[in-house]
User: Fold this.
Amino acid sequence: MALFSSSLCNHLSLTRLCGLRTNTITNGIYSPYVSSQSRLPLCRHYSSKVRRGIGQYVVSKFRTANAKYEVFLKRRFPRFYQLYHTFTEGFKLLLHDAKDVHRIKMKMHSDGLQFKDLPYRELEKYRQFRRDIMKAIPLLVISIPPFANYLALFLMYFFPRQLLVPYFWTPKQQVEFRALYHSNRVRQHRPVLKGLENTSQQVKDGQLQSGLKALCAKMQRGANPQVSEILAVRTLFSGPPLGIHRMSVDQMRHLSPLLFLTPRLPSFLMGRRLNSHAMELLLLDRALGRMGPHQLSEAELRQACYVRGLHSNSLEINQYREWLSRWLQLSSSLKDSEVSLLLHCIVFLSANYPGGASRH
Assistant:
């Protein structure tokens, strides 16, 4: 009897453990025969719950150890901790944006949308992420092997601007590097205007030639041209001598840094990259026009102006809005074939703007 009771208790324990029910009940006692078809899925379910429980336990322990490690770094090595924290938070933000971009791509695929059909914010995120990820790929590859993240931290410390994207910049570096990149852009203002002045000698139409010379002279005097004065010479930028595929190599080399592109490429590659980035900028302008620039937050407004050539710490928010409105007024009048003029407007509209960086 004791043996039977022990056997019965063991069987009932197994039955409860796996969440099983016997097929028949005889005299109030569970039958010892259980259907194998009903036992297998439930046991698998239990096994998966056990694995999930173990996984959660491991993750919890890892997070606890990581938190202790961060406290240790923050107390003993504050500068290294700042780099470590910047890297980990930047990586999280990068993954978050990657998910957003994946969602945008799935939306384009399911709805049959093209790049130009996206709303402004999605278009800007997609464009910026694509540029950043191309630069971030080498660092991410280096970080894959075990403990290789320390090598990445070493590179972050010594070569942050050259190797890292804004995801991995500290707040101080964000301000410093943006100013440095813009100062490199500003150095191209005078060569771009000089190139236009030299090119004006090739223009056969007298009215267009005088209009381009007057525009360059006004810029060199430090004055701001009117939108109508710029649009008066627009036909010169759709074909020779200033079209995106017809301008001189020297002019392309001066324009490339305006978009933060390297000028150290063969001319045909520079032309393709300039055209691609100029078209993206034109599509961004059209999407922003559909949304309305008044819906931009202050941070978005400053970023939009920075991409288009304006950067200054001395400007008020209303000045940024005024400048962006002038840019969109001009941009909305351009055709796809006139994107070269849009690139030159980075100089036309920002070089002499009050408080602009040309004076810094």
Residues 77-169 form one domain. The two ends are 98 Å apart (CA to CA).
